[in-house]
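Pilot study result, target chain (291 residues):
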Amino acid sequence: MTSVHTEPLSHKSSTLGDIKGIVSVDWTMGDRAGISEHSRLLRFLHIGTEANCYTPGNKKFSVENVHCIDTSNQELAVKEIVRVAKEGLSVCPDALFFALAVCSRSQDPKTKDSAYSALQEVCLTGEGLFSFVHFGEEVSKPTTGWGRSRRTAVANWYKVDPKKLASLVTRVVSHRGWTHKDLLRLVHLKTENKALSAIYKYITHGYEAAEKEFSVEDVSSDVKEILAYLKAVHELKHTTDEQKAVHLIEMHDLSFEHVPTQLLKSEEVWLCLISRLPVQVLVAQLPRLHR
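Predicted structure:
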């Protein structure tokens, strides 16, 4: 049986050319002697394992089976996590979220602060945020780990440009047993920004409640724009009309994640979506398109 062998990685920033050396085919299962902890860390961040044999599929991480993020190199680990996340070349994003969660539980205050400060750079989507929270609780057992630092970091994830946040929270609603509503209840968010407040209301009470509270005569244009976007998402979720769905997607620049399952059987909807899909998402959906 052919195994996938990984070469030790250098400390330099990876490019597509460099990544070719990370994984190569070999017929041996043994690891190379003398590989540095830094190389093991980079291997883990890129392919989700410290070993030299990559296997696709979901992986289970724990502090017991991942040893490359030990207490001696966690400050360096945070820098590498951020770098690899920005490069977007990891085939196992969960490894980044797990590693960041481990570093956020560091006994070194500087490392801990760096890990939480990097949350928005590493967890770019709701899925990433939920995974970080999930792993954070796992590595914090027997406690939950919900101290002031984590609450502040998670709260800051929701204090971004309202248009960006509206897209993020409506594209990925839940993951790993967590929802945005769960997190808002834990962090007790408060803001003077009315557009953000409308989004928070939408998350915790739904579109109708947000519309009722913020659709007033003197509302700002920013709030109107956010409500129009949330209304489009709400209508798309509840419509069975293919042409209306296409219109909503085009008018409000909605994404694949916004489209309910029943509309993904529509040829018209797919013709509208294909040009908007990232290559990775399109490739993942090829079996559905073939059917």
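One observation from the pilot: The first helix runs from residue 16 to 19. A full batch analysis is planned for the follow-on phase.
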